[in-house]
């Protein structure tokens, strides 16, 4: 089975435990993460902390995850929030199947469909991937604080992991 290509939105990268959970899935070849410099810049702007070491680690650990050369598509994409257009452009350029975002309402299906994209809340996506790949549960429990993950609004995933 090949890894599912996903673009991880800034709001998800920003959330440490959710980011760690997705990267465990990437390590197990369940997903192929993608992001862009614009996503990293949003993360920098919105973080109270210096995150350069984290960004450098992501770039080093996942060199093929950095999407480039999509900027010329951005202004052709129609969204209510023009600041989210880069997410669709990067996901399309990466040939991602999904955009993983907490901001589901910002990405209307009618706007994603022409780009053969869909969206998923991290809770639904993570739950489905864990159910389909039970072998990663021990790795998740060994490397992620379920209490911290619970604070990230991944209720369904947490409930499943605590069974």
Structure characteristics:
5-stranded parallel beta sheet, Rossmann fold, alpha/beta, 10 helices, 49% helix, 163 residues
Describe this structure in words.
There is one protein chain. This protein is α/β, with parallel strands linked by helices and 163 residues long. It has one domain: 5'-nuclease (Rossmann fold, 3-Layer(aba) Sandwich), CATH 3.40.50. The protein contains ten helices and five strands; from the N terminus they run βααβααβαβαβαααα. It has a five-stranded parallel β-sheet with strand order 3-2-1-4-5, with helices on both faces. Helix 6 links the parallel strand 4 and strand 5. Helix 7 packs parallel to helix 10. It is globular.
Number of strands: 5
CATH topology: Rossmann fold
CATH first level: Alpha Beta
Task: Specify Rg, calculated over alpha carbons.
Answer: 15 Å
Strand % is 5-15%
> Overall pLDDT, averaged?
96
Our measurement of the CA-to-CA distance between the termini, rounded to an integer number of angstroms, reads 26 Å
Low-pLDDT sequence parts: none
DSSP helix count?
Answer: 10
Largest sheet data? 5 strands, parallel
In one word, what is the shape?
Answer: globular
- The domain tally reads 1
Q: Write out the strand line-up for the largest beta sheet, numbering strands in chain order.
A: 3-2-1-4-5
CATH architecture: 3-Layer(aba) Sandwich
The CATH superfamily is identified as 5'-nuclease
Estimate the helix proportion, in percent: 40-55%
């Amino acid at each position: 089975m090949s890894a599912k290509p996903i673009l991880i939105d800034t709001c998800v990268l920003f959330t440490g435990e959710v980011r760690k959970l997705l990267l465990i899935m990437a390590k197990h070849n369940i997903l192929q993460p993608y992001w862009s410099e614009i996503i990293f810049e949003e993360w920098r702007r919105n973080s109270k902390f210096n995150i350069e070491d984290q960004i450098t680690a992501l770039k080093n650990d996942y060199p093929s995850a950095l999407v480039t050369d999509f900027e010329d598509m951005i202004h052709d994409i129609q969204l209510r929030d023009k600041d989210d257009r880069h997410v669709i452009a990067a996901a399309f350029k990466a040939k991602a199947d999904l955009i993983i975002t907490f901001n589901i309402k910002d990405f209307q299906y009618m706007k994603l469909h022409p780009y053969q994209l869909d969206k998923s809340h991290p809770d639904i996506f993570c739950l489905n991937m864990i159910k389909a790949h039970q072998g990663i549960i021990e790795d998740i429990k060994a490397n992620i604080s379920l209490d911290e993950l619970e604070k990230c609004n991944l209720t369904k995933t947490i409930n499943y992991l605590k069974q």
